[in-house]
């Protein structure tokens, strides 16, 4: 493991501590890549924990040259046991609150009203917790939206019902909303595809180009190209330092094995994931080169369908 990777783990551990309610850094604050086995992850966290403590001490010392982030001064503010001079506190987007902010609010004497939607939580990856699951208080539903009409409200209610939500959404009768089908005359067909992983973006991109569709990627295309370049270097037997998702692997075979283990843990049949086939190296390198050309082809274009990559 490279020194830069270890340094990043220490810094990420300090950042997660800053966003937590704990009084000192703990081993579980240090994020470890899923490729590392659990027993090795435990040892790695314990060995890095003293360095996280040292970094936090440097953050707290005004005389040290270490730069601090927003998380650090918010943590220092929380440790000062602040009192918010208000009779009522309205805390919005509570589904993405972190442990630190919850600890501050729970220490206040004022009445706190938490507003949030658990179906819109997007920051769990950086330590956010769904405050709606941790607060014991009377609940009221805000079900009326001023952004759309009844048609979209009915569709949203059907989707929420699939999530075992029995409270319907209401729209505004004076707003004309329509649900467009592929066969709607006068409208061009387009698809908006939300993807959680870069590999999924590449898969949809390849499929769309094969169909002859015009494609635009609403994502960092350079990052996707870097992923393809990193994969090619691994296939050639070279170690890489970027992107981080591939930097921990020593070979492409390790990438494949990691993918198989992930699939097995998800109770699926073991096999290769998209773009991780076990064909001959020449064939795999040709596939990577084709994907790079496709990415260069769509970079900067603004036509549908859209493949969008959301980090997660």
Strand content: 5-15%
How helix-rich are the residues, as a percent range? 40-55%
Mean pLDDT, all residues: 80
SSE sequence, one letter per element:
HHHEEHEEHEHEHHHHE
What is the CA-based Rg, rounded? Answer: 24 Å
Count of strand segments: 7
The 3D shape can be described as flat
Per DSSP, the total helix count is 10
| Span of the ends, CA to CA | 23 Å
Overall domain count: 4
Structural class: mainly alpha
Strands side by side in the biggest sheet: 5-7-6
Biggest beta-sheet profile: 3 strands, parallel
Low-confidence stretches: 267-278, 300-312
Biased composition (Basic residues): 259-268, 281-295
Protein name: Helicase superfamily I
Keywords: ATP-binding, Helicase, Hydrolase, Nucleotide-binding
InterPro entries: DNA_helicase_UvrD/REP, P-loop_NTPase, UvrD-like_ATP-bd
Explain what you see:
The chain is mostly helical. The chain has 4 domains: about 5-75, no CATH class; about 85-135, no CATH class; about 140-180, no CATH class; about 190-310, no CATH class. The chain contains 10 helices and 7 strands. The model is unreliable at about 265-280 and about 300-310 (pLDDT under 50).
List keywords for this structure.
312 residues, mainly alpha, 4 domains, two-stranded parallel sheet, 10 helices, disordered C terminus
């Amino acid at each position: 493991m490279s020194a830069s990777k270890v340094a990043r783990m220490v810094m990420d551990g300090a950042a997660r501590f800053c966003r937590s309610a704990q009084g000192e850094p703990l081993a579980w604050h240090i994020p470890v890549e899923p490729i590392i086995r659990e027993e090795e992850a435990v040892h790695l966290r314990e060995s890095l924990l003293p360095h996280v403590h040292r970094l936090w001490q440097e953050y707290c010392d005004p005389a040290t040259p270490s730069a601090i982030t927003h998380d650090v001064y918010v943590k220092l503010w929380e440790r000062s046991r602040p009192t918010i001079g208000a009779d009522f506190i309205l805390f919005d987007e509570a589904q993405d609150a972190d442990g630190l902010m919850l600890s501050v609010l729970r220490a206040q004497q004022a009445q706190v009203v938490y507003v949030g939607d658990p179906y819109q939580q997007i920051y769990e990856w950086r330590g956010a917790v769904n405050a709606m699951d941790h607060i014991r208080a009377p609940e009221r539903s805000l079900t009326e939206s001023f952004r759309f009409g009844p048609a979209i409200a009915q569709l949203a209610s059907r989707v929420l019902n699939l999530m075992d939500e029995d409270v319907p959404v209401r729209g505004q009768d004076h707003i004309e909303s329509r649900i467009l089908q592929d066969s709607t005359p006068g409208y061009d067909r387009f698809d908006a595809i939300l993807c959680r992983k870069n590999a999924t973006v590449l898969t949809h991109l390849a499929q769309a180009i094969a169909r002859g569709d015009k494609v635009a990627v609403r994502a960092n295309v350079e990052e996707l190209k870097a992923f393809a370049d990193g994969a090619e270097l691994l296939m050639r037997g070279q170690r890489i330092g970027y992107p981080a998702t591939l930097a921990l692997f020593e070979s492409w075979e390790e990438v494949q094995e990691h993918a198989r283990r992930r699939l097995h843990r998800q109770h699926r049949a073991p096999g290769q994931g998209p773009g991780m086939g076990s064909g001959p190296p020449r064939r795999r390198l040709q596939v990577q080169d084709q994907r790079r050309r496709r990415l260069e082809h769509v970079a900067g274009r603004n036509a549908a369908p859209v493949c969008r990559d959301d980090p997660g």
